[in-house]
Amino acid sequence: MSLEQPVALITGAGRRFGFALAQQLLAEGYLVLAHYNSSKAGIVELEQQGAIGIRADLTDSTAVTNLIDEVQRCTKRLDLLVNNASCFFNNATVDADPAALAAVFQVHVQAPYQLITALTPLLQASGQGSVINITDIYTESPSTDYLAYCAAKAGLANLTQGFAKALAPQVRVNGIQPGPILFLPEHDGEHRQKVLAETPLHVEGGLEPMVQAVRFLRDNPFVTGEFIKVDGGRALMI
Fold first, then answer.
1. How confident is the model at residue 139, as a pLDDT?
2. CATH at 86
3. Measuring CA to CA, how many Å separate 85 from each of 110, 170, 190, 237?
4. Mean predicted lDDT score pLDDT of the chain
5. Dihedral over Cα of 42, 46, 48, 52: its sign
6. Is residue 186 part of a domain?
7. Tens-digit pLDDT profile for residues 18-35
8. Which Gene3D superfamilies does this UniProt record tie to the protein (predicted)?
């Protein structure tokens, strides 16, 4: 690794947006530290393109500490930290399983807090460190079917603004609030039609608009503590 090569850590890099962002940053010349828990197939592909895969279960604070140690072994600078990893459980699941309830807050609040706090010296060492937290449009208007998830994402949004104040001017901290970017395989046609009908732009966004939002927040030196909705206007309707 060149001392001038930019370095990015992406959590949840093995699939969907994390994977697409990792590919884009690799193409731009970054050293990408690609965190994953179970999505190994995507990580193998990223490693073939030059990424360094690091496995950690973010529901385990000790595993997060080990992830931090591995990042510190890999690099002396960190230009971009993207807290993207997520777990998504409805009320029935977290009500029936205390571990699922704990996981929602550990993945979305505790792990990002640990990562940002411990990796601040590396972010400062880059001279242009930037943190981007992936929250959700429902942080401001929570879904009654996913109360714990929405509360955890709201906690991450609060951390975003808190760290933006605490780490300025050396490190900028912002967030992205995605909407219907990419439906999951289990979303049937009826669900997709309903969501798109409630989205002013009436289309599934795809991953490129999210990557573009990262570029904007990364490259604009006068933006911190802010959130960009990438949702086709859906937040207007919820």
1. 94
2. 3.40.50.720
3. 12, 25, 27, 26
4. 96
5. negative
6. yes
7. 999 999 999 999 999 999
8. NAD(P)-binding Rossmann-like Domain
